[in-house]
Amino acid sequence: MIKNITVIGAGTMGNGIAHTFAQNNFNVNLVDISSESLDKALKNIEKNLDRMLAKEKITEEEKQNTLSNITTYTDLNDGVKEADLVVEAATENKELKLKIFSELDKTCQKHTILASNTSSISITEIASATNRENQVIGMHFMNPVPIMKLVEVIRGKLTSDEVTSNIMEMSKTLNKIPVEVNDAPGFVANRILMPMINEAIYTLHENISSVEGIDTVMILGMSHPMGPLHLADFIGLDVCLSILEVMHEGFGGKKYTPCPLLIDMVKNGKLGIKSGEGFYDYSEGPRNKKVAKQFLN
Ligand SMILES: NC(=O)c1ccc[n+]([C@@H]2O[C@H](COP(=O)([O-])OP(=O)(O)OC[C@H]3O[C@@H](n4cnc5c(N)ncnc54)[C@H](O)[C@@H]3O)[C@@H](O)[C@H]2O)c1
Q1: Is the pTM of this model over 0.85?
Q2: Number of folded domains in the chain?
């Protein structure tokens, strides 16, 4: 039975994943190499719980229980000893993930299932860094994790039926709806979403319309809840670029070539909400966006 969870990486996704498991009564160890990220994550989780409390979605007792279910670590070995399931949500970088999984394989107990929240990197390749390829699986949560219902559950070539059904069932206990998909670059969600975001960036780059114009077309014209440029800021422009690069490498052709404007913005540290600026400027807070200076005519 899965009871003890370790989440690796306390960034945008890691803090949401830790929050979700803790709120559903799992014991959660949250690991990050940066103690600053861990502090920020705990503050963020508390802020999100307060928002739920104000909306009467949870009680004060549930808030306190959730917080007390989370322990933080900067040392991976200490943080994973008791884990039944590890969910890795570290930076989207293949070499880094291969290194983490090889280390996890050596440190974790034999029964521990190793999951990755990667947006695009092959689960089969990540599994090959371990000696337990049948126990490695993708658990692709959506941002913001405590709110979004979907978990894409990705089977690597060697993931066993038992591990897959175990993770599908456990995802339901988190009040999520899991969808099983096979391993391919970008899986389903990002294979469809990222070309749209990239194309939106091309329309801006080619001066077809403004930031607000492009987002308004997709919100009003397609009933999308947020425009693609705003969504890219929300996901993180560095994350979008990494996913497009993985798909470009995996499928070839022109379709997934990242727009030069996206590459430039990432080079200049404009990563979206997490850095304070992307297509929009968030200097007055993430809910108070205005178009970034460089895109004002
Ligand atoms: N941002 C999204 O909307 C989104 C959605 C779904 C999946 N993902 C995936 O989730 C993963 C994390 O993305 P994110 O947006 O949270 O990134 P992020 O940059 O916000 O956070 C990454 C965290 O990983 C930590 N880290 C780096 N190396 C580490 C190591 N060796 N051990 C422990 N921690 C380490 C960093 O310190 C940082 O806190 C990526 O694989 C990404 O593709 C992201």
Answers
A1: yes
A2: 2
Dihedral sign for Cα atoms in the order 69, 71, 72, 77: negative
Is residue 241 domain-resident? yes
Whether the CB-CB separation of 284 and 273 falls below 8 Å is answered with no
170, 195: one domain: no
Q: What is the DSSP string of 227-250?
A: -HHHHHHHH-HHHHHHHHHHHHHH
Same domain? 158 vs 32: yes
Count of residues in the chain: 297
| CB neighbours of residue 229 within 10 Å | 28
Quick one: 150 and 251 in the same domain?
A: no
Q: Is the CB of 143 under 6 A from ligand 1?
A: yes
| In a shared domain, residues 18 and 137 | yes
Question: Which active-site residues does the annotation give?
Answer: 119, 140, 152, 190
**Structural domain span for residue 275:** 190-292
Q: Is the CB of 6 under 6 A from ligand 1?
A: no
**Could you say which of 182, 202, 228 is where a domain stops?**
182
Question: Is any atom of ligand 1 closer than 6 Å to the C-beta of 126?
Answer: no
Per-residue pLDDT of the chain (297 residues; tens, 9 = 90+): 899 999 999 999 999 999 999 999 999 999 999 999 999 999 999 999 999 999 999 999 999 999 999 999 999 999 999 999 999 999 989 999 999 999 999 999 999 999 999 998 999 999 999 999 999 999 999 999 999 999 999 999 999 999 999 999 999 999 999 999 999 999 999 999 999 999 999 999 999 999 999 999 999 999 999 999 999 999 999 999 999 999 999 999 888 999 999 999 999 999 999 999 999 999 999 999 999 999 997
Nearest CA to ligand 1 atom 7: 119
Question: How is residue 202 written in tokens?
Answer: 């091309």
